[in-house]
Structure formats: structure tokens, C-alpha cells
Specification:
The structure holds 2 protein chains of 2 kinds. By secondary structure, chain A is of the alpha+beta class. Helix content of chain A is 39%, strand content 20%. In chain A, strands 2-3-1-4 form a 4-stranded antiparallel sheet, covered by helices on one side. In chain A, a hairpin with a 4-residue loop joins strand 2 (82-88) and strand 3. In chain A, helix 3 packs across helix 4. By secondary structure, chain B is mainly β. Chain B has a 12-stranded antiparallel β-barrel with strand order 2-3-4-6-7-8-9-10-11-12-13-14. The chains are: A alpha+beta, B mainly beta. Chains A and B meet through helix 1, helix 2, strand 1, helix 3 and strand 2 of A and strand 6, strand 7, strand 8, strand 9 and strand 10 of B.
Chain lengths: 124, 291
């Protein structure tokens, strides 16, 4: 094998090596669970009627980090009627304090969390 | 053609992470959470929100085989602004400023330059997301962009270069894994290229791997307002002129709810550089804000 051919094969190997971690990660993420994944659950349609209670609890997944929690906080606080937002990264529970007459609906709360980049399981 | 440079930079004293600066200058800084210094992630600001990132990189280079310059020091400030168009689509603008480029010329004099390298506009779209628990998530994003010339002499390539890439990120409990690949097509042909790695007259392929481990807290709670991560990156740059470099970058990341601060050291572990000055080591210090 010529030196040039050997170097070309070395370069090719170097270029394909980065793909291996991607393939492994992708396989692990999609193939490991024996139970249906949370994110594969049927999408829930939330009611659009305004809430009447003073607090709502959203359960979400994929929150991953404090900066991500801020995404949720800032997005929810843009909704009329949202006063406080507390995010528990460990449980995925988002407690939303509501006030005033124009409170958001479950659908608008869920949409806000989805627009922040996460998956909503329930809104209560 | 200058003789090729083969060396293990760890043995050298202060050789540079021009490689590191270069990685940045190719628009590797996309502002988002759990994102390592030089490796893009799949996260982004929420819809309608911005994230701003400023990263300072110091690097020292060896001898430039083209110009003969030696004892080169470079300080680069990379400004990045990212906007969440939707919950899964974002736009990013990267503006790298060469604050100081100090070198000793072949005639023995010391020159100092500054300027702007090429600007990068990048779109990132998350095509797949799998959330397996309140915390854990795996996401895949596609990246497309353009590197636009600033026309700034030594630091601008004078060509509009398309960029395409993929990023896969997985967060599992305290661990975060990211793998990114990006390819820049150099449209200038044999035209003007800069001294910056990945910005010469050849196409550039980047592969970046990042491993993050949350040092504190061990378990999140409702009172958690910040986290500290240990980072380890492996960043590679292959150019179609045959140049290749591979860097390791250990670092630390402090991430609060509205800002993050990061620091890393860039250590080249393999270099095969014929067409520009090779680097030895570098430092990176960055800060990010969400608003």
C-alpha cells in the first residue's frame, strides 16, 4: 500500500470515527426501554376554557438543566394571568400561580411549555 | 511546499489553540443550555426569547509556514446572539473579533493587528426529541448556515461559505453527551483564505464531542437555582488540504437560571498542519445570558 493510500484511509477513518458516538447514543436513546417511553404517549388535547383556580400544576419532561427551567419561566410569565412559576427539575412539576379574572387555559399553559422546548404530560 | 509539521503539542510550551479560536470562528458557539464551550448543543432559547454569549479565547501559535511569523499570540472575542423563532427552531449570529494578533515577523519586528473574522448566520432545527423522564432527554438537530465575509484583510475569506451539520445531545441524570459534525464548503476555490484554522482556501470538517458531568447538586430539587458541571471536549478539525488537528478541552461550567459562566483549557493532542501555524494550548472564558 502506498503512503498516500495509507494516509487517505487514515483520514477516512478519522472522519468516520465521530459518527460512532452518534450512532451509539441514538441507539441507546431509542432502544433501551422495555416500557413505552413517556414521550411516545398519545398527545393529550387540553381544554381551552380559562382556568378558575389560583394554581395550576404542569408535569413536563426533558427539563435537563437550570437554564432550561428559565425558558419555561419566561414563556409562562408572558401569559396573562400568570403571576408565579416554580419549576422542580427533579420531578418535572411546574407550579403556576394564577391571578386576576383573565386566567389562561390548560391548553395555553401546555402550549407555552411546548414552545419552551419540552414535552407536557399533564396540566391540572 | 513547506515541510509538514508533525508533533505532539503537549510537549511544547504555550503553543496555541488557534485551533480553538478557529473552532469558535467557524461559528461553533451556539448559545444554549448544557452546552460546552466549543461544541454546539440542541437546546435553544424559548420561542420569542434571546440568548447572548460572549467568549474570550487566548491562544498561542507556532511558526506560520507561509509567512514565517513566530511567537504568535491571539486574543479573540466571539459574540453570539441566538433567537428562538419557535420552540424547536432558532437563528444564531456569530461575530468574531480579533482583539489582538501579536507576532514576530521573519524580519524580527513585532507586529500587532486586529480585525473581524467572517460572520456566521446559522439556523438550527430540532428534528427529533425523546424525553424519557422529567430530566432526561435526547435530541437531534440539523444545522445550516452561511459564513459571510467581512472583507477584513487577513481575517476574512472573501467568500460566502455554506455550512451544514448535525448535533445529537443526550442528557441522562448527571451526565450529558453531545456529538456534533459540521462541514463548511469553501466557495472561493483557490482564492483568498485566512491564516485562521478552518478558514483557509479548503473545505473544513469539524467533529466535536462533549461530555458534561453535573458536580453539584447531586439531585435537583424545587429549590435548585444553579448547577456546576465538569466538561471535557474533544474537538477535531479536518481541512481538505490535508491539515488535521485534534484538541482536548477540560473545563468547568456554572449554570444558573438566567446566566452561565464557563472556563476551559484547550490542549492539542494531534496536529498534522502544513498550511498554517499550529497551536499549542489556549484558554477560553465565556459568559451567557438569557433574556
Amino acid at each position: 500500500m502506498s503512503v498516500h493510500a495509507a494516509r487517505s484511509r487514515c483520514h477516512l477513518a478519522l472522519l468516520t470515527l465521530p459518527m460512532l458516538p452518534m450512532l451509539l447514543m441514538f441507539s441507546a436513546a431509542t432502544g433501551c426501554q422495555s416500557a413505552p417511553a413517556i414521550a411516545d404517549a398519545p398527545q393529550t388535547v387540553f381544554p381551552t376554557t380559562p382556568l378558575k383556580q389560583d394554581f395550576a400544576t404542569i408535569t413536563a419532561t426533558g427539563l435537563s438543566c437550570p437554564l432550561c427551567a428559565n425558558n419555561i419561566d419566561s414563556t409562562l410569565k408572558k401569559l396573562p394571568g400568570v403571576q408565579t412559576v416554580d419549576v422542580d427539575l427533579n420531578t418535572g412539576r411546574i407550579t403556576v400561580g394564577l391571578f386576576g379574572k383573565a386566567k389562561p387555559s390548560k391548553a395555553s399553559l401546555a402550549t407555552a411549555v411546548v414552545n419552551a422546548g419540552f414535552t407536557v404530560l399533564s396540566v391540572e | 511546499m513547506p515541510s509538514p509539521t508533525y508533533r505532539l503539542p503537549i510537549q511544547q510550551s504555550l503553543a496555541a489553540a488557534v485551533a480553538a479560536a478557529i473552532m469558535l470562528l467557524l461559528g461553533s458557539s451556539i448559545v444554549s443550555a448544557q452546552e460546552a464551550t466549543s461544541t454546539p448543543s440542541t437546546t435553544q432559547p424559548a420561542m420569542g426569547h434571546f440568548a447572548f454569549r460572549e467568549t474570550l479565547r487566548y491562544s498561542q501559535l507556532g511558526t506560520d509556514p507561509v509567512s514565517g511569523d513566530t511567537d504568535q499570540h491571539m486574543l479573540v472575542a466571539q459574540s453570539t446572539l441566538q433567537y428562538g423563532v419557535t420552540g424547536s427552531f432558532s437563528l444564531t449570529l456569530d461575530i468574531p473579533a480579533i482583539l489582538a494578533d501579536i507576532r514576530r515577523t521573519s524580519s524580527g519586528s513585532t507586529d500587532t493587528d486586529s480585525g473581524f473574522a467572517d460572520i456566521t448566520l446559522t439556523a438550527k432545527y430540532r428534528v427529533w426529541q425523546h424525553d424519557s423522564s422529567p430530566l432526561n432527554t435526547t435530541r437531534l438537530s440539523v444545522i445550516g448556515g452561511l459564513e459571510l465575509p467581512t472583507g477584513d484583510g487577513a481575517y476574512s475569506s472573501d467568500s460566502v461559505d455554506p455550512i451544514a451539520g448535525l448535533v445529537l445531545m443526550s442528557i441522562i441524570d448527571r451526565w450529558g453527551f453531545t456529538q456534533a459534525i459540521r462541514y463548511k464548503f469553501n466557495t472561493s476555490g483557490s482564492g483568498h483564505g485566512t491564516k485562521l484554522a478552518g478558514d483557509g482556501s479548503a473545505d473544513a470538517f469539524r467533529h466535536d464531542t462533549a461530555l458534561l458531568y453535573r458536580l453539584d447538586p447531586a439531585v435537583y430539587s424545587a429549590q435548585t437555582k444553579a448547577a456546576v458541571y465538569a466538561m471535557l471536549e474533544c474537538n477535531g478539525l479536518y481541512e481538505t488540504n490535508g491539515d488535521y488537528e485534534l484538541n482536548l478541552a477540560p473545563g468547568i461550567l456554572y449554570e444558573a437560571t438566567t446566566f452561565a459562566v464557563e472556563f476551559s483549557i484547550i490542549l492539542p493532542v494531534y496536529e498534522r498542519i502544513n498550511y498554517r501555524a499550529a497551536g499549542s494550548w489556549g484558554l477560553a472564558l465565556g459568559v451567557r445570558f438569557l433574556f
